[in-house]
Design a protein that fits this description.
The protein has 4 helices and 10 strands, in the order H-H-E-E-E-H-E-E-E-E-E-H-E-E. It is an alpha/beta fold and about 180 residues long. The structure holds the ligand Nc1nc2c(c(=O)[nH]1)N(C=O)[C@@H](CNc1ccc(C(=O)N[C@@H](CCC(=O)O)C(=O)O)cc1)CN2 and adenosine-5'-triphosphate. The ligand Nc1nc2c(c(=O)[nH]1)N(C=O)[C@@H](CNc1ccc(C(=O)N[C@@H](CCC(=O)O)C(=O)O)cc1)CN2 binds near residues 51, 52, 75 and 97. One of its GO terms (biological process) is folic acid-containing compound biosynthetic process.
Length: about 180
């Protein structure tokens, strides 16, 4: 395959997106603003799962503010465990994969208490397909989400691609904000 031909499988697309994300700097503000509006349009959502951005991902921690319950994941073996975070500056420390994670002592929020999940990803498609980093953490997590919980992919516009080659085990997003 030449570097310019379109990706034909998950592994190709992961490679392409990883190198695109490394090659440039991007502006998070436009997407962060859209998320803020989305949150105010959904006052019924009280408990919201966030993530602490890896390089290239949209940084959404600044959206944490009083009035909602904000859940952040900690990698525990093959699973993600969510804890309540009020103040990212004091409640997080660098953990697995160099990602900032909540302190273990913070209250645990069970997955079925979460009303909406903001999901990071390398790429998404218009059918709600999500390409993650290939460890299956979010698929295993979202299997245990409440059926009515909203799953929202967060990405830069260029990460919305025609096809992420979703497989049967891949849990689809209900929406994508980019
Ligand atoms: N911000 C954020 N938090 C997240 C995820 C994520 O994608 N983004 N995850 C989503 O599941 C989980 C962590 N999964 C990850 C899986 C692989 C790598 C990673 O750095 N992989 C290397 C490859 C080498 C390796 O496997 O260690 C790489 O990408 O270069 C990082 C996170 C939980 N928290
Ligand atoms: N629900 C599940 N239960 C057990 N294993 C799973 C499940 N979902 C995915 N896996 C396994 O995890 C591995 C990675 O899956 P996949 O490529 O879909 O990950 P991903 O969604 O890109 O990663 P991540 O969620 O960590 O960002 C695959 O080997 C897959 O078989």
């Amino acid at each position: 395959m030449t570097p310019s031909s379109p990706p034909t499988c998950k592994a190709d697309l992961r490679r392409t997106m990883r190198s695109l994300l490394k090659s440039a700097s991007f502006h998070d503000e436009p997407v962060a603003k859209k998320i803020t509006h989305w949150i105010s349009d959904h006052p019924e959502l009280i408990t919201i799962a966030m993530y602490a951005a890896l390089p290239g991902e949209i940084d959404i921690l600044e959206l944490i503010s009083p009035g909602k319950s904000w859940a952040l994941p900690r990698v525990e073996g093959e699973k993600l465990v969510f804890h309540e975070v009020r103040s990212p500056d004091t409640d997080l420390k660098t953990g697995a994969f160099g990602i900032r994670e909540p302190l273990e002592t913070l209250p645990i929020i069970p997955a079925d208490k979460i009303d909406a999940f903001f999901c990071p990803g390398l790429a998404f498609d218009a059918r709600g397909g999500r390409l993650g980093r290939g460890r299956g953490f979010y698929d295993r997590l979202l299997e245990n989400a409440r059926p009515d919980a909203l799953k929202i992919g967060i990405c830069h516009p260029f990460q919305l691609v025609p096809d992420v080659f979703a497989e049967a085990h891949d849990i689809r997003m209900d929406g994508i904000i980019c």
